[in-house]
Design goal:
Order of helices and strands: HHEHEHHHHHHHHHEEEHEHEHEEEHH
Shape: elongated
Number of strands: 10
Helix content: 40-55%
Largest sheet: 8 strands, mixed
Distance between the termini: 78 Å
Length: about 575
């Protein structure tokens, strides 16, 4: 019995070593490794318990106490922190499946024999049954993982498995399911439009960093004909994690369907208004007419611009203040992705200016990018504060952070999607730019996704980003940049935490220049300005090639008071 136990006590050690060798990292790996470690401990404890029971029986029968070998092998189990998926090694994963298969087949008869031997001596057979349960677990894992690994290798068109596919389709049983996403995706597969709305509500909360990767893996595992049918579901293209081109196709179909619906509804509302001549019907007519106007605004925004990549429609919403997310270029294949987050008064009706700013960033960063490709995204994905009666409502007011916190969750979820759908690349860069109140929104998103929101953060005309020091954003201070135009009254507020433009905050500051105070807050994208040119360099990671604005100190500056002798930087006082 001692020889039998010694032979099999390390049956699960090869599987643990393969996990330590990065067969599988991230996604469901922490849960799987925890389970594997627990099963290994149960195996060794059961084997030791069986031998100690037999040794005690020998002593009770008057024999000398037999030596019981140590069955707890020394094996350091590396911790696997929860988080977004990082990758798998398909060859090592295949070896892991084989190791579990061997352990399952070997341990099943061992457990049966030990249970029989113990019971035959009048001892408890629990240790043997425990070993049998470990064998059943290993066998179950073998079948499940082998089936998934085979299916993914047959269907995934890339040599290296995409993160989302490997983590959330291949190993979904180990990844957790916040908000019931797995069940909702199953209902969407069956064509349930209501499940799309429910999953979008889960997505909006931004609480599950792995949701977008799960969506991406689910999408890649679908048959082509099913994918085509799902594109017609209302709101389907809003799901983060879907490829950008898929989102664009689905959203354009939905936009066309909404236009047809609203056109019919407006015609009916017009006829009803003329027939009844009832002023109470005017409100309904105006609502429908406004939504139809917004559809036409989006259509105009999507028109091709010579010399620029096609605009991809990543999201829209015609209700409330309206929302719009579009990208100059494909963020899934771009070497550099820039996401711009606007603040006060932004929304669908004023989207033209935000699109123009993103286009200017695309032009400027492309001019410095060499052979690298750039995608520039306008993210109007939250209800930004407005200068209207809502300013008195803390949930909507620019004087409070509630809207930024809500928007930050949505922004974090959106960037999860960019990461999940991006073609694997070791050199790709992600940059997020927050302007005005949008910088506070960006700050909230960075805190929600420490170290994962972006490679570089840029704050423009910021009233504060919700933290007191750059270290609280979860990104190296070397990659957090602050631009404050001289004369920008918003940048001087420091309303939400430490003013990012001060030394005490700890970020990098880049030269911007100055304007009349009435124009300074929106001057950062002025054509050929030091601010725009420097943002292009920062986006490309060319931190050592920033330029200085020309000095205004030797010119009369009527109505342009200096904050300090250097209009670009503010020093702590």
């Amino acid at each position: 019995m001692a020889a039998l136990c010694s032979e099999h006590h390390a049956a699960l050690d090869p599987a643990v070593r393969l996990m330590q060798a990065h067969a599988w990292v991230g996604g469901g790996a922490p849960a799987f490794l925890t389970d594997l470690t627990r099963q290994r401990s149960a195996l060794q404890t059961a084997l030791s318990s069986a031998l100690h029971s037999l040794a005690e029986l020998v002593v009770r029968h008057g024999g000398p106490a037999p030596a019981v070998p140590s069955l707890h092998s020394s094996l350091t189990v590396a911790s696997a922190a929860p988080g977004g998926f990082q990758g798998i090694d398909p060859a090592a994963m295949t070896a892991l499946v084989s190791a579990l298969d061997h352990a399952g087949h070997a341990l099943a008869p061992v457990g049966a024999r030990i249970a029989a031997e113990l019971s035959g001596q009048g001892l408890s057979g629990v240790p043997g049954r425990t070993i049998g349960q470990v064998a059943e677990w290993a066998t179950a894992q073998t079948g499940d993982l082998r089936r998934r690994l085979t299916r993914i290798r047959q269907t995934v068109p890339w040599d290296s498995l995409p993160a989302g596919v490997a983590a959330f389709d291949l190993f979904s049983a180990h990844c957790g399911d916040q908000g019931g996403a797995g069940a909702l995706l199953g209902r969407i597969t069956a064509g349930d439009a209501g499940a799309v709305r429910e999953l979008l509500a889960v997505q909006e909360r931004g609480q599950d960093p792995g949701l977008a990767a799960r969506v991406n893996g689910w999408w890649h595992a679908l048959a082509p004909e099913l994918r085509e049918r799902l594109l017609d579901l209302a709101g389907f293209g809003l799901l983060n994690g879907l490829p950008a081109t898929v989102r664009d196709a689905a959203n354009r179909r939905w936009l066309a369907a909404e236009k047809a619906r609203l056109t019919r509804e407006l015609g009916a509302a017009t006829a009803e208004l003329l027939r009844l001549d009832d002023p109470l019907l005017l409100g309904h007519w105006e609502r429908v007419a406004n939504q139809l106007r917004r559809v036409e605004l989006i259509e105009r925004s999507l028109r091709p611009v010579p010399g620029h990549p096609p605009l991809l429609l990543l999201a829209f919403d015609l209700n409330g203040l309206g929302r719009l997310i579009v990208s100059w270029g494909d963020p899934d294949t771009a070497d550099i992705t820039v996401t711009s987050v606007s603040g006060l008064t932004s929304g669908l009706d004023a989207a033209a200016g935000d699109l123009e700013r993103s286009r200017a960033l695309w032009q400027q960063s492309t001019a410095f990018s060499g052979d690298r490709t750039v995608a520039s995204i306008t993210w109007l994905g939250y209800s930004a504060p407005q200068l209207d009666p809502g300013i008195l409502d803390p949930a909507k007011s620019v004087a409070f952070s509630h809207a930024a916190a809500t928007g930050g969750a949505g922004l974090a979820a959106f960037t999860d999607g960019l990461r999940a759908s991006h073609v694997p690349s070791g050199t790709a860069r992600a940059v997020v730019i927050g302007h005005s109140y949008g910088s506070l929104t960006t700050g909230h998103a960075a805190v929600l996704r420490p170290g994962r929101l972006a490679d570089t953060l840029i704050f423009l005309g910021s009233p504060g980003v919700g933290v007191d020091h750059v270290s609280q954003l979860g990104i190296s201070p070397k990659h957090v940049w602050v631009g404050e135009a001289g004369g920008d009254p918003v940048a001087a507020l420091g309303r939400f935490g430490t003013d990012p433009g001060r030394d005490a905050f700890g970020a990098q500051r880049f030269p911007v220049g100055r304007e009349f105070w009435t124009a300074a807050h929106s001057s950062y994208w002025n054509q050929d300005s030091p601010s725009l040119r420097n943002m292009g360099r920062i986006i490309n990671g060319q931190y050592d090639r920033l330029i200085q604005p020309k000095s205004y100190l030797d010119q009369p500056q009527l109505l342009m008071p200096e904050f300090s002798s250097n209009s670009t930087f503010k020093q702590d006082r």
